[in-house]
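Final paragraph of the annual report: two paired records, presented back to back.
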Amino acid sequence: MTAEIVPGLRALGMNEYEASVYSTLVGLQKATARDIHEVSGVPRGRIYEILNDLARRGFIGVEEGSPSSYYVLDIDVAFDRLKDDYVRSLDETREALKSLSVKPRLPPDSFFILRSGWAIENHISSLFRRVKRSMVILCYNPEFLRRYYTIIKPLERKIDLYVVVRRREEYADIRLPIYEARGTVIELLDARPVNGSVMEGLRRDECAILVDGRDFLAITTAGSGRHAVIGSDMPIIGYLQKTIVERLPRA
C-alpha cells in the first residue's frame, strides 16, 4: 500500500520509518501505536518517538486515552504549510548566500572547463545578462548567432557590441553589428580559441566572447558533445578585447 508513497515522503525530508508510519496512518485514518507498528513493520521501540515527532510537525493528531490513538490531520493543510515552509527556506538561503561579504575570486590567469550543457547555457545567459559596457563576439559559426539572436539583439541598444567574423557574406541575414576581421584579427579567428593543449579532441568552434574586459567564454564541440572554457578577472582579457576593437574597420 505504501511502497510507492514512501520515496516521495522521503524526498520531503522524512526518513524511511517516518514515511512508513505516516503513510500507514493515512491508510488507517485512526489507530493505536500497536496497530501502526503491526501494519507498517516499523520497530515497536521507535513507534512512539516517530508518532510524537509527526505530531509536533503538524502531520498527525493525538487522542489521549489508554491506549492513545493517533489520527491524520488534514493532508491539504499539512502539505500547503510544508510547501510554504520550503519556499521560505529557499528564499532565506538564497538571500543569505547573496549577502555573503567574502566573494571568491578566480586565481590570476586561470580558466575552468564546462562540460555540462546546462552549465554552458547558464553561463551564456549570465554573461548576456550582466554585461554593462561592451562585448566582443568572435564568431566561427553563424548558427551560434541565429540560436541566441533574440537575446543578443537587444544588447545592441545598451552596450558597445562587436560581432567579428571571418567572411561577412556568410552572415548577411543576421541583423547585428557585424565586422569582417582584418589584419591580426584574422589570425585570431583562424587560430582555434581552445587548442589541443587545453581540450584535446575538440574540432568545431562556435565562438569566443569577451565581456567588459574581464570575462571570457569560448565554446566548441566534439561530435555531439559541447564544451566551454571560461575565465574571469584576467588582465589579458581586457587587453585582448581592447586590441580587437581598435583593429576593426570603422562603420
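The closing record of the year follows.
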Amino acid sequence: MSAYNRPSDLPDYERPPVSEVVLSIQFGSNPQFQIVHAGLYWNLIRDHFPNVSEQTPLAPAFEAFSTPLIETVPFQVQGFVTPPFPRFWFESQDRAYILQLQQDRILFNWRAISNESVYPRYETLRERFLREVQRLVGFFQEQKIGALSVNQCEVTYINSISFGKEQEDTARLDLVTPLWSDKARNIGGLEVERTLIQTVFVLKSNQRPYGRLYVTFRPAVQTVGFLRPVVQLEMTARGSPEDGSLDAAFRLLDQERGAIVRTFADVTTEEMHRIWSRTDVVR
C-alpha cells in the first residue's frame, strides 16, 4: 500500500480544536475469533499498549440507501447461548492512544489528555492504524481463524470549541456555526439555555451515495485541564468501501477524512477560523 500525503487543497489550521480522532474498520463477524485469541494478540502489542480493559461491544453500523433513513432503533430482546464477545481497550502508557478490538471491528483513537496535548495529525494516525490493521490480518492468518473482509469504514473527529474567557454562553452557537442564527435565541420571548444541532449529509461519488456524514453541535464541559463550558462538534463519516480489501478501506477512510475537513470549514465561522489560525486562505 502506497504512502499517503495530505491533499494540498484541504483547509488547514495552526491550532485546530481537535480533542479526539477515531479511525474504525468494521468487518464480518468471525466466530472463530475467541477471547483467548485476544489475549494472544495483546502479547503482540503490549509493548505499545500495556494497559487493557473490557468494554461493552459496539453494535454493527451500516449506511443503507435502499430504504428510508430511520431515526429510531426498535427495541430488541436478544438471547445468547454464550456471552457476547467484549470490546477490548488496549491503551498506551500515557493513555493518549487506544487500540480497540472486538469480534467485528478494530478502532484506533487519539485523544487529548492535557491542555498541552498536540494533535498528531491524520497522516500520522493513519500510518499507525494501518500498521495495526496489517498486524491483525497477519495474526488472523497465523492463527488460521479466517480472513478480514471490510464492510464499513468510519472516521470521527471530536472538537472542543471554547468561547474564551469573555464569552462562556454556549447557547451562542451563532458565534461558532452558520447553521444557527442569533435570532433563534428569543423565539416566543423565551431564553435559550442549551442548543443541540444535528445535520446529516449524504456522501456521493460519481452521483452514487456511498455513506453519510453526521455533524453534531452540543454543549459540553471540557474535562481536560480545568473544567469549562465548551461547544462539542462531533463529525462522523461512515460508508461502504468498493470491496472488502484493505486498499479500498483506507482509500475510503482518506475520502471520509477529506469530507470531514472540508465540511468542518463550511459549518464553522470565519471568526473561529481566525482564532484557530487558518493557514490555507489569504487574509
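The first helix runs from residue 35 to 45. This concludes the annual technical report; the extension proposal builds directly on these records.
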